[in-house]
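for the writeup, i need someone to sanity check this before i put it in the appendix. the sequnce is what the collaborator sent (i think, or maybe the updated version? ugh). structure was predicted straight from it, no edits. if anything looks off just tell me and ill rerun, i have time this weekend
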Amino acid sequence: MADLLVEDVAVDLDGTPVLRGVDLHVPSGSLLALLGPSGCGKTTLLRVIAGFLDPHRGRVALAGNDLVGAAGAVPIEKRRIGIVPQEGALFPHLDVAANIGFGLGRRSRGRHERVAELLDLVGMAPFADRMPAELSGGQQQRVALARALAPGPDLVLLDEPFSALDAGLRAELREDVRRVLHAAGATAVLVTHDQAEALSIAELVAVMDGGRIRQCAAPVELYRTPVDVAVAGFVGEAVVLAARQDRGTVTTALGRHPVHGRGPVDERVGRGPVGGPEGGVRGHVVLRPEQVHLLPNGQGVPAEVLTSWFYGHDALVELRLVGDPETRLLARCSGDLPAPGPIGVRVAGPVLFQPQEG
């Protein structure tokens, strides 16, 4: 069982903490997406797992064996880890087949059969004799993935492998990568800053910020029940409203709502005044744009349509509340776009409440 375990890993670079006690578990055969903004520490964590960087403390274990621990660090070449870098980094003087077979050794038994198997797996068999310069960006990444899988590693690390590709090709390639990894039975960690990419490709998503894992969960759980406002705002669009909790529900400028979760306080959220009954706990609620339903003018809470963005499959509508002009909302809808002007809104389903600190 090639599961990956990271325990209390910390890294300081030039006196600055980059990783602050990271804990992570990737079950055998799973694909985990490590999601976070630039500078959050995700690439540093990938380098620690790969062996390019030694942590100041912590443990990394793969398939039950310590790669980093009390006994020291296992050398890179003995970690049984395959790496897919950002832009493939193929050997320019070797053709596709030779690139894939590079890590197998010229005299390794079954080398030719293994290369042929991987060429078929990544859909590159017709291009076996091509040189890297003759391939598209997506084709190069498929070859890089096959090369990483060739020795049968216990773990595959993918460092933003789709970042240099256009949007359409990214969507196609990430589905191919997921299929190939599952077919190979590989445990994998994908580093990305793309929310849609992480949610669509991985069984688990770990949101990283400030050198820590803020939350690690299945994509649906992460989106529907984020642990706090910061995670909610990073994983898809979020509407954050001042609120007051009282007797199991919360009150906002949009009315009273049931609550589905409660997380630790995010200090970056402001402390503005809130409406609602006196007493109770002040804080903020988080809801998704699809929870904001549009109604005919005269129904629900009075609002005004400011603008909208059409994406084909759906649209986002920006709204301003009539009774609270400082409050702006996003609503996701399908069908005809509402014209700018008066409209009604209501909130469907429970919301996340986060109490205010102090």
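The domain at 4-229 is CATH 3.40.50.300 (Rossmann fold). The chain is about 20% helix and 35% strand.
thx in advance!!
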